[in-house]
Amino acid sequence: MDMHSVVVGTSGTTAEDVIAVARDGARVVVSEEALAAVAAARQVIDDLAAKPDPVYGVSTGFGALAVRHISPDLRVQLQRNIVRSHAAGMGPRVEREVVRALMFLRLKTLASGHTGVRPLVVETMAAILNAGITPVVHEYGSLGCSGDLAPLSHCALTLMGEGDAEGPDGVVRPAAELLAEHRIEPVELREKEGLALLNGTDGMLGMLVMACADLARLITSADITAALSLEALLGSEKVLAPELHTIRPHPGQGASAANMAAVLAGSGLTGHHQDDAPRVQDAYSIRCAPQVAGAGRDTLAHARLVADRELAAAVDNPVVLRDGRVESNGNFHGAPVAYVLDFLAIAAADLASIAERRTDRLLDKNRSHGLPAFLAGDAGVDSGLMIAQYTQAALVSEMKRLAVPASVDSIPSSAMQEDHVSMGWSAARKLRTAVAALGRVVAVELVAATRAIELREGLEPAPASRAVLKAVRAAGVEGPGGDRFLAPDLALAEEFVRSGELVAAVEPVTGPLA
């Protein structure tokens, strides 16, 4: 576990903190200010619990069962039961980083002083995160409204010392054993606490934050591979001139054009399209690369704005307000997050689609301006990268299906009490798949473009392109030549892109890219 610490206070958190906890194992520290606010809100709940008037989540049932008043002697059982009954997930396990993000974001809301839990609950959840204990959460069970109910319930189950969890060694064991090994006492939940642990958009938000970070790197990577493809096809860099993008002032478009221009600076390959068969203009997949990637950038900027707002939120129902009122609300509805999750899947699919079209152009001897068919060593005997493009096309086709919005599909639940839901969790799950696929698509373009540049004998690539060629070959991805087992090359290229090594290879030459 990384010993870097993230402090949780009363005013929300940042995307960087979420990633530090979820992916890097940063230690969580709850501030004294937050513990004081939590204690003050808890006093409000204790006062209400002592009164005869029914209060939702404190002295009533849940959802469509909220009409029943629960007597004091049954309230501990009520809170325990909501966790057990709602921990109804099915399907494969969700990734460790997603569960850690989910728990950290729920902890963030609990620490806001708006949920009414005891400080003990907050401190125990932080201890579980710091111990590296990760509850077993399943793929299916959230409708993205009333919170990510089943996923959060599985996390709350671990807090109670029930169910299964993964230890820091990666082995799944009973949660009670793991808590005991780390000297963490299971929590007996009291009024409001079971509900407060389940009622948030934390899963979909955590996945949005991580997807934004991954997509930012992939969009920059796609700018680089688009530049390499333009170079390999002897295209014109004139379309990247800043004045052409200033007159259509989408910021993302300008940033992508600037990235591509920086990569191509000093190239001896660009502009040669007039030498063999005159081309007045390059194909759209080359010429419009900044417009498509730029639109993805602007979509990402909007998604980050939504994520930042949600990271500043305290999502629960009911909430404890600073003036002592406890009010029901609908802030758990995941629509704001779900919409941008779907929007990002659309942008990712289109970016993959244009990258695949560039790859296909590199492989087609009728459109590649002098390159051998499929970039093969001995076309006919060798197939070159023919089937790599098949794999890329299959990924793009899958991404187009994943771009179908989840957020427009509401299925009523809880006996029609919860009659409109966001499906934000589903939007987040498919976006994660799409982001992984985009990384593979960009990797295939990288393999094709670097091979094609090396086949342009007698022409000197740009300094940044040479840096990419050196780095990608050092990473083990082989260049032109006869056919070989191709899957390992593609896997190495995928890791080269996913890890950020492609961007890191270029920036010492170009300076920081957007």
Automatic annotation (TrEMBL):
Chief place of localization: cytoplasm
Regarding how it is modified after translation, the entry says: Contains an active site 4-methylidene-imidazol-5-one (MIO), which is formed autocatalytically by cyclization and dehydration of residues Cys-Ser-Gly.
CDD domains referenced in this protein's UniProt entry, alphabetically: PAL-HAL
What's one Pfam family here?
A: Lyase_aromatic
Enzyme Commission identifier(s): 4.3.1.3
**Cellular component aspect of the GO annotation:** cytoplasm
The modified positions for 2,3-didehydroalanine (Ser) read S146
**At what sequence positions does the UniProt record place the cross-link 5-imidazolinone (Ala-Gly)?**
C145-G147
Question: In which compartments does the protein localize?
Answer: Cytoplasm
Pathway note: Amino-acid degradation; L-histidine degradation into L-glutamate; N-formimidoyl-L-glutamate from L-histidine: step 1/3
According to UniProt, the reaction catalysed is:
L-histidine = trans-urocanate + NH4(+)
Record keywords: Cytoplasm included? yes
Molecular function GO labels: histidine ammonia-lyase activity; phenylalanine ammonia-lyase activity
User: Is Repeat among the key words of this record?
Assistant: no
Please give the superkingdom of this protein's source. Answer: Bacteria
Q: Which UniProt keywords apply?
A: Cytoplasm, Histidine metabolism, Lyase
* Biological process terms in GO annotation: cinnamic acid biosynthetic process; L-histidine catabolic process to glutamate and formamide; L-histidine catabolic process to glutamate and formate; protein homotetramerization
HAMAP family on file: His_ammonia_lyase
Q: What family does the Swiss-Prot or TrEMBL record give for this protein?
A: Belongs to the PAL/histidase family.
Q: Spell out the protein name for this chain.
A: Histidine ammonia-lyase
